[in-house]
Amino acid sequence: MLDIILDTLIDVVKLLPFLFVAFLLIELLEHKFSNKTKKVIKASGRFGPVLGALLGLVPQCGFPVMATNLYVARIVSLGTLISIYLSCSDEMIPILLSEGADISLIGKILLTKFLIGMVSGFVIDLIFRRKNSKIDYDICKDEHCHCEEGIIKSALIHTGNISLFILVITFILNIIFTLGLEEYLRSIFNDNLYIVPFITSLIGFIPNCGSSVIITELYLNEVISFSSMISGLLTGSGVAILVLFKSNKSIKDSVRVLILLYLIGVISGVILELIGL
């Protein structure tokens, strides 16, 4: 057990500098472009799903929350919101970069999420329509993202939070591997390839960075397939779902968003598995 704890700590400590630099860059992006991004989304009109899916790829940790704010205020469409939720990667990119993942893998994930987000957004906007009304919601004040306290402090907070999740997940995986259960766990997932997207899509709904950490680490350790990872990353939008249920006046509408996300995540994973991606 001592060896497991030591190996886990070493693995996480190695990642700390990379995670901090990654989150520092993300904070710079968010502070520099958040207002411009908001204006672009507001003015996107019928092309919202394209711009939403594209802008969602930019690693801004508060972007899904901002998009939720715009949707609840009836400024953007349901399709635009869904496209942003599906394309955003939460903490996936920093984790992959810190783990030394191939850039082509990151590009493949982002392209897949963008295409699914864009197409899904257009289809949803063809089916659903919304009337406009307005409410007020202050993201930084209500969600305690610490962005008003400076990018270094915010980056340190994000680094600490993610490191804690990685520490827990790595510790659990190290125990599994040490006990010789690695192949057993993989066989369970490999024997139920078309069931796994149902599970990872549910994991994606964990309302914090934990979902992307769990899913990404499971993929990097070759426990789940690429398609199953995509299912979980599609439904993962950080705390945005909590914001939606807290701020949206219609519980029925919020539940509809949740169901749409889950169905898209599961169906996408199954299709990707069928075509062998």
Could you characterize what this model shows?
74% of the residues lie in helices and 0% in strands. The chain is mostly helical and 277 residues long.
Q: Largest sheet at a glance?
A: none
User: Could you report the average pLDDT, rounded to the nearest whole number?
Assistant: 79
**Cα distance, first to last residue?**
38 Å
* Percentage beta strand: under 5%
- Note poorly predicted spans: 131-145
In short:
The protein is mainly α and 277 residues long. It contains 14 helices and no strands.
Produce the secondary structure layout.
Layout: H1 2-42, H2 48-56, H3 63-72, H4 78-87, H5 92-98, H6 103-127, H7 139-143, H8 151-178, H9 182-190, H10 196-203, H11 210-220, H12 226-235, H13 240-247, H14 251-275
Helix pairs in contact: 1-2, 1-3, 1-5, 1-8, 2-4, 2-6, 3-4, 3-13, 4-6, 4-14, 8-11, 10-12, 10-14, 11-12, 12-14
Key phrases:
277 residues
